[in-house]
Amino acid sequence: MPGEPRDILRLKECPECGYDLTGLPAKHSCPECGFAYDASTFVLNGHVPSRIRDALRGALAVIMILAALGVAVLIFYRKCAVGRPSVLPALIAFFAVPVLSVLGFGSLMSLLDRRRLRAGKGNVTITIAATWFSLRKRGNDAQHFLWSDFSDVSMRQISRSICRIRYVPRDFNTPRTSNLTATIAATNNEAGLIRDEVCGRIKAARAVSTDA
Question: What is the pTM of this model?
Fold first, then answer.
């Protein structure tokens, strides 16, 4: 039922201050900060792309390519120095080193991101409520959105325990809602449960807005 998420999604700590809510009623307010919640509220720990981090990754990729070019030139120069000039080793180094380096770096970053998610250390907290949801990036204020502004949610499993969630807005021309994507820690079964819950709330919100 959309309004009553099962135990796997039940709220365990306050999304505002981190206070432990274990043992408190399903509908209550956080004793520490006053955040009101009920049985329909749950929280997802996720990761969203960082512009600074993406810029650093791009800079590192450029450095790797330049380093590969230097290796290629060095190989060619040494071959010439011993009287055996050959373009093939230089070409192999020029193409293989940057490709393997960038792929290896990308795989390492993805592995580290997944470990952070599994450990509950993502850079965004997604709070799901009955009529709204919010995204709070680390160190920033939360952004709140109404389910009535969205038409669907898509989820794609990228590993056994990691899933990518994307909220599909009703109006793609609205910058605030046009690109809401996050990676969350969820198995295939958990992802299906989350999608069912979210889609149920979107449909309920749209029905209310249509009746109004």
Answer: 0.66
